[in-house]
Amino acid sequence: MYSKVKHQHETIDYLLKIVWQNMANRYNQLVADWGITQSIGYLLINIDETEGTTVSQVAALLGLKSTSLSRMLSQMEQMDLIYRQSNKGDKRSVKVYLTDLGKEKRHLARGLVKHFNNYLNEHLSDKEKQTLITTLKKVNQLTLDYKP
């Protein structure tokens, strides 16, 4: 029923973690000069530049628990990248908005992500990309459905 895995580095979860860790490390090296991290850049990219984004939407987009997100948002406020504002109609709902500096860093981060994805696109065939995307979506769904 289960195929034998000879080495840890042959498991799907290990390879996914290593690939993502290497990508995050590379992004961190590239954005360090801008005074941000890969995580902050990713969060900036996911905040709507004109309408703002609710904290709950940000948490869902990033897959973060509220305590981790709260700490990160506080750090970003201290860095003058964002500000938070309660929704006028529903005081429980808080929206996150970009400051001018946040918009500038968002623009830099988006450019970097586009360049990196162009680089990947140049080195992967259309078939490889489609297979990868389909497989990753399937692995994600299987992970969500897994009940030992």
Search tags:
globular; 148 residues; single chain; mainly alpha; 6 helices; three-stranded antiparallel sheet; 8% strand
Please explain how this structure is put together.
- By secondary structure, the protein is mainly α.
- It is 63% helix and 8% strand.
Present the secondary structure layout:
Blueprint: H1 12-31, H2 38-45, E1 53-54, H3 55-62, H4 66-78, E2 82-86, E3 94-98, H5 100-123, H6 126-145
Antiparallel strand pairs: 1-3, 2-3
List SSEs in N-to-C order. HHEHHEEHH
Task: Label the overall shape.
Answer: globular
Beta-strand proportion: 5-15%
Largest sheet: 3 strands, antiparallel
* Strands in their spatial order, largest beta sheet: 1-3-2
Give the low-confidence spans: none
Helicity range: 55-70%
How would you briefly describe this protein structure?
The protein is built from six helices and three strands.
